[in-house]
TrEMBL record:
Transmembrane segments: none annotated. It comes from Leptolyngbya cf. ectocarpi LEGE 11479. GO terms for cellular component: outer membrane-bounded periplasmic space. Residues 128-216 form the Sporulation stage II protein D amidase enhancer LytB N-terminal domain. Pfam families: SpoIID. It comes from the Bacteria. This is SpoIID/LytB domain-containing protein. Signal peptide: none annotated. GO terms for biological process: sporulation resulting in formation of a cellular spore. InterPro entries: Bact_Sporulation_Assoc (IPR051922), SpoIID/LytB (IPR013486), SpoIID/LytB_N (IPR013693).
Amino acid sequence: MNNMLSWSLKRLVLNRHSWWVAVLWLMWILPAQAAEIRVAVRNNTSQVQIGSSTTGVVRDSRGQTVMQLPELQPLTVNGDNGRLELLGDRNSFGASSTFWLEPSNGGVVWIGDRWYRGKVKLVPGDYGVTAVNYVDIDDYLYSVVGSEMPTSWPQEALRSQAVAARSYALYHQGKASGRSFDVNSTQSSQVYKGLQGEAPSTQEAVDATSGKVITHGGRVIEAVFHSSSGGHTENSEHVWSTAVPYLKGVPDFDQNAPVYSWRAQFSLEDVGARIGYPGTISAVEVLSRSPRGRAKRMTIIGNAGTLTVTGNTFRQKLGLRSTKFDLSVSPTGISVAGNGFGHGIGMSQWGARGMAESGQKYDKILTHFYNGTRLGSMND
């Protein structure tokens, strides 16, 4: 396994990605940023493979140097019962409650299947090992912007995404006391693909907005976002039950989104299996909706009685793009016609693109989607 990983590391650096040399050049010329964010890029997995593009220093929980890791040489970290074991190709380098790997000379780290800027801390998770990438926040955002939004989109849309993502990360960093990380790398926080998510356009967007955050009442906001609302965003309390003053519904400009409208078909048997209804379904009804038409409570009716579920549960079980839908039931199945993609709260990414294409600047885009906010500096 380790020989294969070593070969993969070398192949990735030398052959596979033509942008690698350009990325290294950009890393060398870009100045270091001031703030650092902790991102869980692997969470509670039985083992993690790590490596470094340059010679790396491996340290244990006491800060003692375990080894100098040669460039492109893989290591495996196993986690069990709150302890970690560091394994090389044929031998163990010992156990510890934590391990650090920090590249030298501006190198980058390999974690699992991607390259990342910064360094990595390995900590025990509930069921294994968690790999936490410690990275300067703007370096992190270079990737988040390109992981969350197409890099070819208008610069003002990308800048909107950069400021929203910076605000979201800092908000959660302020709530992370006692945790080993601030955010994770998936859609449950913000998608972060390491160097793979970066592009010159995302670096431009982050650099042009460096330090900018969205504030409400003098505090950085939780700047949530989604792909497309289907015409109008939603108040937070109508989806998540908690009213947030800056997360109010506003008109969207997402009509050109490919997910603005969509359709899906399911057999009654498929719906029953996915929802967990034990009998034969005869009807599916929406009991209540939000003011903008999102399903809040639903009922499934059949020969085994009535089952009530939330609109979010129905969406998740059937893999629908949003809870903004209408449905019709026939003897053979269910037809669903919906709008938008995502929870519909905060900034619509397709709406940001639409506003950018109409000539709006990123600050106007952000204050449109986040009610009563202003732009400030993370250093204020």
